[in-house]
Each structure stands twice: as structure tokens, then as C-alpha cells.
Write a structure and sequence with these properties.
binds adenosine monophosphate; 2 domains; disordered C terminus; Rossmann fold; 6-stranded antiparallel sheet
Amino acid sequence: MCAIVGVFGAKKASTVAYYALFSMQHRGQEATGISVSNGEKITIYKKRGMVNDVFSQETLNSLEGSCAVGHNRYSTAGSASAGDAQPVFAKYKLGEISVVHNGNLINKQEVRDELISNGAIFQTDMDTENIIHLIAKSQKKSLVNRIKDMLTKIEGAYCLAIQSRKKMFVIRDRFGIRPLSLGKLKDGGYMVSSETCAFNLSGATFVRDIKPGEMLTFEEGKEPKSEMVFDNIDFHPCAFEYIYFSRPDSIIDGTNVYQARLETGKRLAKETPADVDLVLPVPDSGVAAARGYAEALGVPFEMGIVRNHYVGRTFIEPTQSIRDIKVKMKLSPIQHLIEGKRVAIIDDSLVRGTTSKQIVRMLLEAGAKEVHMRIAAPEIKYPCRYGIDTPTEEELISSSHTVEEVREIIGATSLGFLSIEGLKESLGKERNYSLVSFDGKYFAGGSKNSPSCGDS
Ligand code: AMP
């Protein structure tokens, strides 16, 4: 998952990057970092933790320069070390570079094995380090040609921002799997970020999305230079960005995320309607889809479950008498609304089935007469290797159970999923989406059985 930002030509690039990373905290909470260049040298600060905890005014003041690249890291199993934070910085033959990366390289191991057999040493598990090594070892004379050389050797999902002391390069892979947009700053500079929600807070206006296979070069005194660095473009934006991952106020490749979720809800109502008195969302993930579902059925929509926003980790062991303590600490039903009613409860996706099971039980305990679970996405049957953190196939309940079996496990009166066709139509049928979680079909090499996302 992860978020990246790149800022060029700003008075205080680190502050712009900070606000962008703050707005994209949902894309990664494990670690964060910003690297700045003042034209002479690169300075970097990165640490485990959330954006607001890691950066102070003092830290931002120490990061002086008009170019910045920044990153929020999403924690994936077995890769929680502090060293895995980004940006990744290196001194090499041509000077200094800093790299940030969102996505997942599917040929990471092959590339790494070859680099190691040629004498390279690695300090982290991140595929971003492969990128730095490939640039450093390239025999091309200029950085831009070294970057192009590196791009011929990596495969998979990536959005990259690469900073040298004087320039910034931004690249989106030829499939356009992860989102990346360009914005213009009020003082004349530019920024790129994984999501457009970052522009609002950083004071930038949206210019356009970076095209799949495009590289933008930023240099002082010049307008950004666009170059298509691949001739085999095969656009496959990730459907999961719309379903779950991105913020509802973001616009990805021309489609607003909230609107897309609303459409999935409407379509869900057509495909799998429920005869109910009330439609409730699972807060906050199911809100937009539930609005669409209720509107299409003409049934009242109610925020019938309250979410406590202050839940962090708890180390207190639950007693036998309080079942499902974790979900109860987070979610609480409004009994007054639910008692005696037939309700439809809508979530954006069902992964292991644990959340649904607990919510169904909670609603029945609150007196619901019937609980009809509806999921505004198709059944998730396969892990994603392009950077969405899904568990192994064994843990994905829908990979080994039919809809009826899942219904029984979660204890719902009925259960319905959106069809793959319905999802495509809700998002806009004219595109080929990346749907690997649902159909297991990889388009950028590799098979569905390879390791899941290690560095996203
Ligand atoms: P589960 O309880 O395992 O079925 O998870 C379903 C819940 O997890 C839904 O409320 C989703 O909004 C949320 N979800 C879906 N995908 C992910 C993901 N990749 N990481 C974390 N949460 C997710």
C-alpha cells in the first residue's frame, strides 16, 4: 500500500511534503520519512511512527530545500524494522539520490539474487533498495539514462519519485496499477502524490494524473518534462484503491472514490436486493456503498452503528463474559434503531470474515430480527502481489468456501456479494482494472502462487 509525495520548486518543500503525508496517513502508519535537497546536498529524516509523531516544527525546519520526496510505509508481516522506512538514500558514482516507492515489484527476488551474486550487499528487505542498486550499478553516463536502464529490469507495480541534488524524476509503471497525480503549488512549484486528497491540505491544485508508463523530469527554471518510457502500455488501475484503500475525497484517474463506492452500492442493490426496514453501513468502510444501496432500494439509511475513534491497542485481556471485546471497543449498535427491525448491513469487502461475523452477532444481540450482510465487492479469493496487503489464500474465507458456507459461518440471514461484472460497470467499463484479488489473473508476469506483498 504506502504513499509517496514529491515536491519541486517550493519555498519550504518539507512542509508541503509533511501535509501531503499527513493527508495520506491511511495508506501507511508504520513509518514515515522526508528527504530534501537544497541543490547542494540531500538531508533525510525518517522514523517509525505516524506523521504527526515523527515530525516536529524543529525537524521540518532542519529539512531545508526546495525539493522533497516523502513516504508513508504500510506495515506488512515480517517487515517491521526501522531500517525499512523510506526514503532510501545512497551516495553513488554521480552523487546522491533518494528514492521513494509505492507498489510491489514482482521480480524482486530474481533481481536481488542476481545483484547479490555480483557482490551487492543489502541492508533492508525492501524492493526499493533493488532500485537504488540498479541505478548505481548501471553503466550509463547520466542519471536519467541510468533510471531508464533500471526500469527495463524491474517488473510489477510501482510509482517512484527519485531525487538527486538538482532534479526530481517521477515514474508510474506501464500498467498504472497504483495512482499518482500531478498538482501545481500556489508559489509556482509542483507536487506529485499518490492521492489527490493530499493537494487540498498542501495548497496545490490538481493538474492531471501521471500516465501509465510516463516519466516526469523536474529541473530548476524549466517546466516539467514528460516522456513516455515504455511503448507497451497496458493500463490496469487497481480496483481495490476504489473499493477500500483510497480516501473518499480522492479522484483517481478521473473517478472520485466516494462516487465509485456509491455506484457499487447501487449496483449491489440491483444484483442482490434485500427485503429490509433499514440499511446500515459498517463504519466507516461501508458508508458510501450503503448510501448507494439504500438509495437504490428506497429504504432508510441509518448510521446505526457508532464507531469509537479513540481505539488504539489494548493489552487488557477480555473476560469470558465479554465476548468480541475488540469489535465492541470499536463499534457499538444503536439498539433503539435496530430492535425488532430487518436490517441490511453493508461493508466494502470481506477478507477473513471476522469483522462480519462479529458485527452480525452484535446486531442480533441488539435485537435485529434479520441481518442481511451485503458486500460491495466480489469475493476475495486470491492474495494480491501488486501492493494490496491481503492475507494468504488459506486465510481468505472466500477462497475455500461458497457464499452459502460463508453465510453460515458469519451467522447472517442472507449474504450477497457484488459480481465482478457489476464492479467493472460501477467503476466504468471502458477500462481493464487490476482485479487479481477476485479473479487471480496477473497481467504483469508471475503466478498467483508467488509470495504476497512484502514491500508495499
Ligand atoms: P475481515 O474481518 O478479515 O473479513 O476484514 C474485512 C474488513 O477489513 C472490512 O471492513 C474492510 O473494510 C477491511 N479491509 C479490507 N481490505 C483490507 C486490507 N487490505 N487491510 C486492512 N483492512 C482491510
